[in-house]
Amino acid sequence: MPSPLPLPHPLITLEEAFLSPHVQSFYAAQNHPDPHAPSGLTGYATSALLEFGAARLSSMDANGISLQIVSHVPNPLPLDIPTAQAVNDDAAAHIVANPAGRFAAFATLPMKYPPAAAAELRRCVEELGFVGALVDSNCGGAFYDDADFLPVFAAAADLDVPVYIHPCPNEAVKQLLYAGNYSAHIATSLSEYAWGWHNEAAVSFLRLFAAGVFDRLPRLKIVLGHCGEMIPFQMERTANVIERQWPHIGGTHERSFRTVWNENVWVTTSGFFDTGNMACVLRQCKRERVLFSVDYPFGKNEAGVAFLKKLLEEGLVDEEGLEMIAWKNAESLLRVKVQKR
């Protein structure tokens, strides 16, 4: 796809992936198949994930992207503490090695070890200047409503930085729901990119709500990618059932689901470049809570810019709303300053 003419204002993208060689070494040491290998499901993107310099910047420049917020690709095998720290040090080194102001980062956390994960988040924000954390939607099959994980979210709330919940493979769910009368490769695709892991990312957030995490941490900020991981489409049904049913079955939530959605959640586009999906998002989310994201290199920067222009052409947003989605909302949430190019 040829690069469209850049928009006449800055762009910030929030879910842009890289791959650290330390993670490749971690999988090899564990004698575990490397999910990011060139021969794997997303092998077409491995070289772009490993590249963190001229080619990445060239694509950003061609499409008018001023600032890319990078994060590590998902890890179905939870990382140990030294590997997570090395990934973050890698990201920090890449940011310094590139032109100033072009990259920022979400921390990678060793979520299997919650106290260490909370400490690593503090290190990344306070010492490395990171803007929050991106966590997989599950930790080796475990979800974050378990009280053991609360210190991580408490640290994020205390630091006033967001936690981005990103889809991640889940082998237990894959075998239960997606293995069927077709190839194992199709089952993997169904359980991940085609359907399952978007649903699971939504479930990960819903479990936090159900466990009362947002009552305990009313300032906690959560980011959901891929146009809200199906929740905007289900909003009326989910919110109405929670409101009507849960008080009768032991629900004691002080803050309603809609309140949490409106006050604690931000949604990014991350590769979902369909205006039908976006129309639903814009109906169910305050426009100051919607942010642009490409999902590079799985999504194409050219497609993202074309999508933003289409939002304007189809009348889904006005010029002010487009700028909010394109960069102003990200500046506000992440407390970054974009360089106007």
Automatic annotation (TrEMBL):
Gene3D superfamilies registered for this protein in UniProt: Metal-dependent hydrolases (3.20.20.140)
Superkingdom as given in the UniProt entry: Eukaryota
Signal sequence region: none
Keyword Lyase: yes
UniProt key word Lyase: yes
One Pfam entry name: Amidohydro_2
GO molecular function list: carboxy-lyase activity; hydrolase activity
Protein known as: Amidohydrolase 2
Organism, scientific name: Karstenula rhodostoma CBS 690.94
